[in-house]
Amino acid sequence: MKNSKESIRVWLITGNPGVGKTTVLMKAVYIIRTHGYAIGGMLSREVRIKGERTGFELVDVASGRKGVLASIKLKTGPKLGRYRVNLIDLAEIGVKGLLNAIDFCDVIVCDEIGPMELFSPDFRRAVKVVVESGKPILGIVHKRLNDPLIQELKSRSFVEVIEVTEDNRVKLPKILAERILSKVEDESHASKRL
Known about the structure:
alpha/beta
């Protein structure tokens, strides 16, 4: 935990591929929702057909609106491995989901700040705006990606980076949810005093 005057309000989950980062995030989101708080932002999920990964779906957490983040079937968009990234859906669903969460939600989630999403200048700007919004944020960052935006986020005094491992992944959702709930409740009490 960082020692600073400014308390932690952004938690970034990282870890090796397949270790369960999204599962940890989703379980923490579930716990926070059971306390009655509104959650917004964006999620990405694998799309599989007959066991083969064919792309990634994008979901606006608050509205449930879905789109295509990347697919092997797309003909246009930046290429990453076998996939092409859909910058239009990323802007219309992912970026809007993040920005709308500032005004309408208690907690913002972002799964993930990774190589596909970072092709989008709109996504990069949206991440900076939500981080500066002051809202509690739970996000996932790619472990080995050496991108200036990720490095900038990791260096901020109010950001804590938490690595998911096989040893901690069962208890981590509850720990993260408790930290975020504590932050949201502190802010709620502070705003009632004003």
